[in-house]
Amino acid sequence: MLKQLFKTKPVIDDNSRLWIFDTFFWAIEHFNSQVFQTETELVLPTNTFYPGRVGSALEMANNVFTHTVQYAGMKNWPLTLVAPQQLTSIDFPELKIAQGLRGKRSFIELVKDSDQSIKFTFNPSQLNQPQDLIASYVQQLATILVMQQKILPPGGKEFLPQAIDVLSCVMGFGVIFANTAYQFKGGCGSCYNPRANRQAALSEQDTVYVLALFCLLKSKKPKEVKSHLKSHLRKPFKKAYQDICLFHDNHKHALFSKVEQ
Question: Is residue 224 part of a domain?
Fold first, then answer.
């Protein structure tokens, strides 16, 4: 009885943990594992990662977009950012892909019969919430990758939104995704703008767990990350990291052998 009384609550349930592990493996396997191992870094919401002064809303949106595309390993893609009122088509052009989807050596170009780049836009309400702006860009980038590969994640089509969030964290944006997974709705009415928030598919706890998994696989110590998280996420992040370390020691999962090989 005493043993049950002092038993700690699991960070996430077993089914969620296994799905996260399997989906993380899916993301690495199908979206360039070599880039994950050699080029992907943990992107932090700091001036070091997003430098530059801007003079207008469009300049800010472009500056954030340019850096985000680079960190996602997709700077070789034919991507164009336009103002919301200029987005007239969402057709996906036909592409020629060589040497991988992402990374410095990737080669992506439009086929000869297509002169249309992939159009991106931004939510003006997010210009005052840069982390939500970054996360929204990354969700669009991750969606494009999934569309191009046409490979469903574990659980099938029903889990695509959640898998896109996992892929976004695999691309290095886990801190930003954890910080924007939930928005506090309290306070004065003028302090909260629901239109500025990104649409999160993973829960806050699950996103923190994916971030912790990324950090373990990329040899990032928790102390390097915690200060960049919202204060209420720091303890769950530490617990998630410890849980994954224990799982790693006690279980064999293809994800670890894939990354450690």
Answer: yes
Measuring CA to CA, how many Å separate 255 from each of 18, 25, 258?
11, 5, 5
**How many structural domains compose the chain?**
1
Spatial separation of the C-alpha atoms in residues 172 and 44, rounded to whole Å: 9
Any domain includes 222? yes
pLDDT in tens, 138-156: 999 999 999 988 899 999 9
Could you report the per-residue pLDDT of 190-202, keeping only the tens digit for each?
555 556 678 889 9
Domain with 133 in it? 9-260
d(CA 175, CA 161): 18
Which token pair is 12?
A: 């996430």
pTM of the model: 0.89
pLDDT at 115 over 70: no
In a domain, 128, yes or no: yes
DSSP secondary structure of 137-195: HHHHHHHHHHHHHT-PPTT-GGGHHHHHHHHHIIIIIHHHHHHTS-----S-GGG--GG
pLDDT band at residue 249 using 50, 70 and 90 as cut-offs: confident
Q: Is residue 247 part of a domain?
A: yes
Nearest-CA neighbor of 119 among 106, 110, 132? Answer: 110
Closest-CA residue to 101 (of 42, 158, 40, 176): 40
Q: Identify the pLDDT of residue 261.
A: 59
